[in-house]
Amino acid sequence: MGIAELFEKHPCKADIISPNAAAELLGVDLMELESLTTERCPERNLPVIILWGRKFYRRSDVTWWKAEQLAAHPGAAERKEIADLFSRADHAEHNPRYQDYALACALRAEARGRLHTWSKRYPAEWTEERAAELRVAAEHSRDLAAGARVYDCDGSLSEDDRERRAAEFEAEAEKLEALAAEMK
Predict the structure, then answer these.
(1) The pLDDT of residue 51
(2) What is the reported pTM?
(3) How confident is the model over 3-9, as a mean pLDDT?
(4) 56 plus 25 within the same structural domain
(5) Other CB atoms within 10 A of residue 57 CB
(6) Residue 23 and residue 62: Cα distance in Å, rounded?
(7) How far apart are CA 124 and CA 121, in angstroms?
(8) How many Cα neighbours within 13 Å face the side chain of 17?
(9) Which of 25, 95, 148, 154 could form a disulfide with 166 if both were Cys (CB 3.0 to 4.6 A apart)?
(10) Residue 93 lies in domain
(11) CA max distance for the chain
């Protein structure tokens, strides 16, 4: 018996949807959908139905989960739309087959305007997002400090010069981490 026959006999066949349909309904890609169904945090995960070794979802579970997430994070849907605008702008600018710089500028301007409005409407989420960006920048600066200690492309830097550069990167990382901690 194949999956089509199994669906025909299943009492709630209209409620069972494929991973692609679930991802589209949630507005995420398949990788993000997979991360939602991991077993790290079962009370917040999206339930999965395994039939014949393949994953399926119930539409009712997906819509319930989406409503729960929107209730927990009210600005998340709007922020995702803004991120999608930025992504579309990057795609329009850097697509090798169809480069449209004017469209990229228009999309980016719209995204910036909506992001500014969103940041005023949801200040707590905005500060949390900015703090996370600062922590990522601090981590990058620490990586640069580690590389500065050992890398010298032409051999012109002395050991003291390399340590001085590493100390500058470390100081920048500490400053960024302090700013992130201040935002909480």
Answers:
(1) 60
(2) 0.61
(3) 47
(4) yes
(5) 25
(6) 9
(7) 9
(8) 17
(9) 148
(10) 76-121
(11) 76
